[in-house]
Amino acid sequence: MAQIQELRVLCFGASITAGLYNFGIQHHPYATRLKSRLKASLPLHYVQVEVDGLSGDHVIKGEYLSRLKPHFDATAGKGEKLDWLIFQGGGNDLMWGEEPAAIFEAMQKLWQISLQGGTKVMALTVTDTEDQRPQTRESYRKLNDMVISHQDKNFFVADLFSKIPYAGMSQETRKIVWDDGLHFKPAGYDMIGDAVADRLLEIIGAACIS
User: Fold this and answer.
1) Which of 161, 197, 171 is nearest to 41 (CA)?
2) Pairwise CA distance, residues 17 & 180, whole Å
3) DSSP run (H or E) holding 140
4) How far, CA to CA in Å, does 182 sit from each of 11, 22, 29, 62, 127?
5) pLDDT class for 210, splitting at 50, 70, 90?
6) Using CA atoms, how far apart are residues 148 and 55, in angstroms rounded to an integer?
7) pLDDT of residue 74
8) pLDDT, tens digit, for every residue of 98-118?
9) Most exposed residue of 119, 180, 181, 210, measured as fewest CB within 10 angstroms of its CB?
10) Which residues are registered as beta bridge partners of 46?
11) 32 closest CA partner among 198, 165, 186, 202
């Protein structure tokens, strides 16, 4: 009889992770779809997915560090370990004028907390928005390119920016997917959950083959 394995995932970030929509009155975390996809695809795993999303938080001057460390302190004290950190952030920093290179540097320090604790990291690129101004597009491109190009052991990327492009959607689709041009409606968060699940299952499948 096959032994049940545990798969522990932490979805960590800001409002996109929290699943904020309808002016913050309602939430629909992408983790909900992610968990259902993982459970359906990995029947021999006991899947746990935790959500820690703080709307409005900043990577550089916010509470990312103080929020992230306790997750690893707590699991270490119990002799447990998170298998995956799904990391989302940087969009709020960009909107407040922080330089992409400075945001990326702060991100790397956060990723290392996870990697040094033996937890794999999947970084999500900053999601697209309705703001199509050239300076905005360039800052997003710079940060996302740095994230995508980063290489480290047990570090992976899911490129949400290219998977869910605002400009590449029809008006009809945008009405279903996007809430306010920055956040998503439940259908959009489910798209994120599917994109993360696809990438995670791809990695897990490759690890099983090798």
Assistant:
1) 197
2) 16
3) helix 134-149
4) 19, 12, 15, 19, 8
5) very low
6) 24
7) 66
8) 999 999 999 999 999 999 999
9) 210
10) 6
11) 186
Please state the φ and ψ torsions of residue 101, each to the nearest 5 degrees: -65, -40
C-alpha–C-alpha distance, residues 111 and 155, integer Å: 8
Contact in structure between 100 and 143 (CB atoms under 8 Å): yes
Structure tokens at 177: 């997917």
- Determine the straight-line distance between the first and last CA of the chain, rounded to whole angstroms: 23
Residue 48 has pLDDT above 60, yes or no: yes
197 Rama class: left (phi>0) / alpha (psi -120 to 50) / beta: alpha
Q: 157-180: per-residue pLDDT in tens?
A: 999 999 999 988 999 999 999 999
Gap between the Cα atoms of 52 and 33, Å rounded = 16
Could you say which DSSP state residue 68 is in? H
52 exposed, middle or buried (CB, 10 Å; 0-12, 13-18, 19+)? Answer: middle
- Tokens coding 117: 């604790």
- Can you give the pLDDT at residue 161? 97
Q: Given the DSSP bridges, would you call strands 20-21 and 26-27 parallel, antiparallel or unpaired?
A: antiparallel
Would you say the C-alpha torsion 89, 72, 186, 122 has a positive or negative sign?
positive
Other beta carbons within 10 Å of 84: 23
Nearest to 92 by CA among 22, 170, 18: 18
